[in-house]
Design a protein that fits this description.
With 396 residues, the chain is α/β, with parallel strands linked by helices. The chain is 40% helix and 15% strand. Glutamic acid is lined by residues 15, 17-18, 39-41, 102, 126-128, 176.
């Protein structure tokens, strides 16, 4: 019999973040007390004025198909926001609005990558990157970074990974899963290699508003004038405005690329939800005070989580400049027994922590970094406190 599944789909792994979150939910449903530090999603509700804009859109009948790549008013609002924030001169023809940033990434790889072309991805990387590149027929080339360098790719390592088949570099700053963030100078050094090697850069900037301790976020294409023509920025409302369920993300791309993404979307999904698009517009056009409130709350949690990690023997992590994750080095606690059971790998450690103590995390291997565990601090202080008390008990 012929094989049922296509080669690309047969090789596809499920998302580890969503799998661990589902496991935590399952355990909770069975009556166990579970604290989930697995899924990276703000625990806040979407601010009221954004919900009100959605209700108004529904009442005004904005409930029909829109232009497949998004309503012109939202594209305009996105351009205005970026112009004010980063001084970047994008036009609506550069914007594609999609069903969340994950969908944006799928579009970008499908439009840019030919069979066998390579995309350089620094590890630790967000779980979906490598799988989405493979799904588009590309080859993810994983380049390891070091905790001592705050998990940042160096220009030397970038250059060494380039081959004649390299098509793009994929950068995530601030980073999921490490919370690391590149300075303008560091981005400039990477940009010089990308320009010299004639590569695309896909800059996932979805955590740009969640930055701590007064550090300054720098948007990739601002560091060299030549970058606008070779950069694709990924962004959206999911993290900044606590709008994960609304499914709105967007890309900034050169017009020719954006046009093809619009064609792809017109065939594949049509427009992202019309009501969510109006809500996203309200998010960008109204006061940003709600963003600052949530950011400040995340910063307190980041400080708390950093202090708890530092206080536990054998745990460590890099500097967390942004996003809401701690990427914890658990290597000193592997290769030993827990309640008589030998635990060798980060995957077993995370599963055992969930099973024994009801704390859900995500194994570093899913992010291309065995020996680590990712903890999301998008949880209340009470939950974080309880979770760390349980982790301490577990390690004893
Ligand atoms: N990029 C990164 C780095 C992320 O952490 C996420 C997580 N949601 C996404 C993209 C996808 O975002 P969305 O929910 O808008 O699809
Ligand atoms: N980005 C979040 C995370 O890394 C949400 C889950 C997902 O989209 O995979 O946990």
């Amino acid at each position: 019999m012929q094989s049922t599944l296509s080669r690309r789909i047969a090789a596809l792994e499920p998302s580890a973040t969503l799998t661990m979150a589902a496991k935590a939910k399952e355990l909770k449903a069975s009556g166990r007390k579970v604290i989930s530090l697995s899924l990276g999603e703000p625990d806040f509700n979407t601010p009221q004025h954004i919900c009100d804009a959605a209700v108004k859109a529904m009442q005004e009948g904005k409930t029909r198909y829109t232009v497949a790549s998004g309503i012109p008013e939202l594209k305009q609002a996105v351009c205005k926001f970026y112009q004010a924030r980063h001084g970047l001169e994008y036009k609506p023809e550069n914007i594609t609005v999609s069903n969340g940033a994950k969908h944006c990434l799928h579009n970008v790889f499908t439009v840019l990558i030919d069979e066998g072309e390579e995309v350089i991805i620094p590890a630790p990387y967000w779980v979906s990157y490598a799988e989405l590149v493979k799904l588009a027929g590309g080859v993810p080339v994983i380049v390891e970074t070091r905790q001592e360098d705050d998990f940042k790719l160096t220009p030397e390592a970038f250059r060494a990974a380039c081959t004649p088949k390299t098509k793009a570099l994929l950068l995530c700053s601030p980073s999921n899963p490490t919370g690391s963030m590149y300075s303008g100078e560091e981005l400039g050094a990477l940009a010089d290699v990308a320009i010299e090697k004639d590569l695309w850069v896909i800059a996932d900037e979805i955590y740009e508003n969640l930055v701590y301790s007064g550090h300054k976020f720098v948007s990739f294409p601002t560091v060299r004038p030549e970058l606008m023509d070779r950069t694709i920025i990924i962004n959206g409302v999911s993290k900044t405005y606590a709008m994960t369920g609304w499914r709105i993300g967007w890309t900034f791309a050169p017009a020719a690329v954006a046009k093809k993404m619009a064609s792809l979307q017109s065939q594949e999904t049509s427009n992202p939800c019309s009501i969510s698009q109006y809500a996203a517009m309200a998010a960008l056009e109204s006061s940003q005070e709600c963003v600052e409130q949530m950011r400040a709350e995340f910063e307190k949690r980041r400080d708390y989580v950093a202090s708890r990690i530092a206080a536990i023997d054998g745990l460590s992590c890099g500097n967390m400049y942004g996003a809401f994750y701690a990427f914890v080095n658990i290597q000193p606690h592997l290769g030993r027994e827990y309640g008589g059971k030998m635990i060798e790998t980060d995957t077993d450690w995370c599963l055992e922590l969930l099973e024994k103590k009801g704390v859900a995390t995500v194994m570093g291997s899913a992010f291309g970094a065995p020996g680590y565990a990712r903890l999301s601090f998008a949880n209340s202080m009470e939950e974080l406190k309880d979770a760390f008390d349980l982790i301490e008990e577990f390690l004893k």
